[in-house]
TrEMBL record:
Pfam families the UniProt entry points to: Ammonium_transp
Name of the featured protein: Ammonium transporter
Keywords on record: Ammonia transport, Membrane, Transmembrane, Transmembrane helix, Transport
Compartments in which it is found: Cell membrane
Source organism of this protein record: Prunus avium (Cherry)
Family: Belongs to the ammonia transporter channel (TC 1.A.11.2) family.
Domain named Ammonium transporter AmtB-like: residues: 29-446
Transmembrane segments: 29-51, 58-80, 124-143, 150-171, 183-207, 219-239, 282-300, 306-327, 339-361, 373-392, 399-424
GO cellular component entries: plasma membrane
Length: 480
């Protein structure tokens, strides 16, 4: 019997110090690309969406809240946040929080990550963009009145005391909900349910916008808003396609399911607007797009295509109903000023996605994602396979995860807001809210007829008298 020989590897695939034998170059390349796509959802995606979706006087402040959060989270993430989310438990036997440590050491960053065939440096970057977008989504509930100094404190504190706990509990191999078998494919719980509940809770403590802004708050640039929404939608390819940590058939399925569910949700929301309001609303279509993206996120790679369609129908109708009907009848929902309706688009859609995952999760697809076949079984397949107990168990774990994230974020967000208000006011003054960007930052989004020219002796940095004359001149030209 002759010894079999294998042809030598191509020179570009041979391991070397810069490409260890445990690293898959294709997986590493895709993970870096997916992370960048998710980053583009925030910068510039949500910056543009927020900047276009608010009144002109709030465009700079809204966009800057997103930009600040993105930068602040990165510094905190490599400083302590990543290890608190994915490192060793803080206390042995306490499976919901990691021990703080720096993720900047060269030796550590070049070692293989806890999952996937790529280095820790790639994983730290990939997980950072998820943490960053969570804080930016929270900002959506607070636009148009939160004191920027309070926001500067809120971001690192909430990341440290809320996000890291949720991420460790659900995504870390040491987390208790991870071990129980919770399915959160790409952040329906950790990101969207968390941000929706935290944003709504923070909005309660910060207080509402001015009466004038609450009564009428038209977008200052719908086309820019749509541009940001488009970046958000296309960036979701990396959001859900990157979470298997491998270039696999499961990643491909997750990407397709994401876009199918989103398109279905958008069309469902649009049809409901047409039926009940007789007009196809652009803003409504964007809301339906977002709820579809959020709903499919916990299930993207573990459900079949027909289930993605059904999830899109649910995500385009149930959040629509809570926003258009329930909201108007609930005194609590009307009292809390949730500027971008993150409670409906993220908390409700995220919880809905988590529940539907417990119904539609396919055992074979779960095996491709988790390499465990019998532990993850959606309820419908539990009936089909004769393992009803396993299906009910999966649904129960999904409900437990929802309850855990809701309680965590209500309690932690409330405590943080109470703490911050002892340091700086949570809310801008009524006078500053009347002015907007000029009062908060001394800058405007759109400078017209010399309004961008600053004077040192002007309270807000602008020549108010010259601006008034310019507006008068513009009116005279228009009349002529």
């Amino acid at each position: 019997m002759s010894n079999s020989t294998y042809p030598p590897l191509p020179i570009n695939l041979l391991p070397d110090p810069a490409s260890p034998d445990w690293m898959n170059k294709a997986d590493n390349a895709w993970q870096l690309t997916a992370a960048t796509l998710v980053g583009l959802q925030s910068v510039p995606g949500l910056i543009i969406l927020y900047g276009g979706a608010v009144k002109k006087k709030w465009a700079v402040n809204s966009a800057f809240m997103a930009l600040y959060a993105f930068a602040c989270v990165l510094v905190c993430w490599v400083g302590w946040g990543y290890h608190m989310s994915f490192g060793d438990p803080l206390i042995k036997g306490v499976p919901f929080w990691g021990r703080a440590d720096v993720a900047l050491n060269q030796k550590y960053l070049l070692e293989q990550a806890f999952s996937g065939k790529f280095p820790n440096a790639t994983m730290v970057y990939f997980q950072f963009v998820f943490a960053a977008i969570t804080l930016i989504l929270i900002a959506g509930a607070l636009l148009g009145r939160m004191n920027f100094y309070a926001w500067m404190l809120f971001v690192p504190l909430w990341l440290t005391f809320s996000y890291t706990i949720g991420a460790f509990s659900i995504w870390s191999p040491n987390g208790f909900l991870f071990k129980k078998g919770l399915i959160d494919y790409s952040g329906g719980f950790v990101i969207h349910l968390s941000s929706g509940v935290a944003g709504f809770t923070a909005a309660y403590w910060v207080g509402p916008r001015s009466n004038k802004d609450r009564e009428r708050f038209p977008p200052n640039n719908i086309l820019l808003m749509l541009t940001g929404a488009g970046l958000l939608w296309m960036g979701w390819t990396g959001f859900n396609g990157g979470d298997p940590y491998v270039v696999s058939v499961d990643a491909s399925l997750a990407v397709l399911n994401t876009h199918v569910c989103t398109a279905t949700s958008l069309l469902t929301w649009l049809m409901l607007d047409l039926i009940f309001f007789r007009k196809p609303s652009v803003i409504g279509a964007v809301q339906g797009m977002i709820t579809g993206l959020v709903c499919i996120t916990p299930a993207a790679g573990v459900v079949q295509g027909w289930a993605a369609i059904l999830m899109g129908l649910c995500s385009g109708s149930i959040p629509w109903f809570t926003m258009m009907v329930v909201h108007k009848k609930s005194l609590l929902l009307q009292k809390v000023d949730d500027t971008m309706a993150v409670l409906h688009t993220h908390a409700i859609a995220g919880a809905l996605g988590g529940i539907l995952t417990g119904l539609f999760a396919h055992p074979r697809l779960c095996f491709l994602f988790t390499t465990s076949y019998e532990q993850y079984v959606g309820l419908f397949y539990g009936f089909q396979m004769g393992v009803v107990h396993t299906g009910f168990r999966q649904l129960g774990i999904q409900l437990l995860g929802i309850f855990y994230i809701v309680i965590l974020n209500v309690v932690v967000t409330s405590l943080l807001c109470l703490l911050i208000q002892f340091i700086v006011p949570l809310r801008m003054s009524d006078e500053d809210m009347e002015i907007g960007d000029e009062a908060a930052h001394g800058e405007e989004a759109y400078a017209i007829w010399g309004q961008g020219e600053k004077l040192e002796n002007s309270r807000y940095g602008y020549d108010i008298e010259s601006s008034a004359k310019s507006r008068h001149a513009a009116g005279q030209i228009e009349m002529a």
